[in-house]
Fold this sequence. Notes:
Number of helices: 2
Strand content: 15-25%
Structural class: alpha+beta
Shape: elongated
Keywords: Copper, Signal
Number of strands: 6
CATH architecture: 2-Layer Sandwich
GO biological process, one term: melanin biosynthetic process
Radius of gyration: 20 Å
Mean pLDDT: 77
Protein name: Tyrosinase
Helix content: 25-40%
InterPro entries: GriE/MELC1_sf, MelC1, TAT_signal
Largest sheet: 4 strands, antiparallel
Order of helices and strands: HEEEEEEH
Family: Belongs to the melC1 family.
Number of domains: 1
Amino acid sequence: MSRITRRHALGAAAATALTGLALAGLARTAGATSDPRATGHQHPEGHAGHDGPQPFSETFQGRRIEGAPSHADGHHGGYAVRIDGEELHVMRNADSTWVSVINHYETFTTPRAVARAAVIELQGARLVPLA
């Protein structure tokens, strides 16, 4: 009769934890977000393949959101997002997801989704420019 050792038990627990983390990462990469109104999941809207996201301009929940490629400060591949004319600082992650200063712990598939999520999070408050 074999006895389970502490090393075997810890190894099995670690393997289980790693499997859970991998599955959670796959679910998040598949486009999971807390508000389905904010994102497109399977085929992200505004996506233009390898060239980056397309410009957008729309009214979302009574707020004017706009986004377009930006070459400010000489950064190639930048993207500018505005809510009611005020700049929302956004950043593209290495995995091609997007975050903003409003939702910096949540990733989104497109800059449009980031802008919509920021509008939802602001709950009618004015976006204040960063100093």
